[in-house]
Amino acid sequence: MASLVDPVTQRANLDYIKTAMRQPMLERDHEFALAKKWREDGDEKALHALVGSYTRLVVSVASRFRNYGLPMGDLIQEGNVGLMQAAARFEPGREVRFSTYATWWIRSAMQDYILRNWSIVRTGTTAAQKSLFFNLRRLRAKIEDKGQPLSDTGRQWIADQLNVALSEVKEMEGRFAGADQSLNAPLRMSSEDEVQDFLPDAGPNPEDVVIGLRDAETRSKWLAEAISDLSPREQTIIRQRRLMDEAVTLEHLGKELGVSKERVRQLEQRALNKLRLSMMRKVETPSDLLADE
Q1: 190 belongs to a structural domain
Q2: 18, 85, 261, 283: least CB-packed within 10 angstroms?
């Protein structure tokens, strides 16, 4: 998916990258002291100093994902979100370098952003699929660097390396081979015709819609006439048991009508048989009562 960046934004991104790369590196003790001040005292100056020193780390990680066709500036912004999350969760007492801890959060934030925006079709819903998405090219390159084309044997090797099914490797390979295309994209540079203009319409045509509506009205009329021929008690049972969004229970109707629920069931079955016979007299074949798909 190609992305276009206007010159102003591009210059701003370059300025930010240059500024980030000029930030001083922190010694271990200084890093620990800043993290402790932020963690224990809520010192925002310490937070800014800690985060600011590792914006270069965000830029470094973003450069590894530049081949996915997304703006570098957007990747950096997402990485900065991950950096802030790392700062909020970092525990100095564990004696782990903040850079090591932050790298995981930065990379995770960028990967999530790529998966959300790389394609309009959702990609990588499981941990295994995410691993496949971000490692397929690297593993495929290992095979192709040996002068061998990627065969099913190679695909199976990749599947084994990443613990995914062979079918998933093939599907992801196909996703990389094709790109999203807008339905509003012109077919040719010299034409105003768009891709969507030549897509077949699988829906019913207007004539079929009108006929379907008319048939439905006729069937509804027949049903109303058939119900009117039932006794008042049978009409009550059919309406409350068959024509309501939530059917009333046999027990509830039995109490309302003063009979047992078994008697209600018998009356319901008798009323349905009457309706069926009444409707059958309206048509030549039973299939005429069915709505067309």
Answers
A1: no
A2: 18
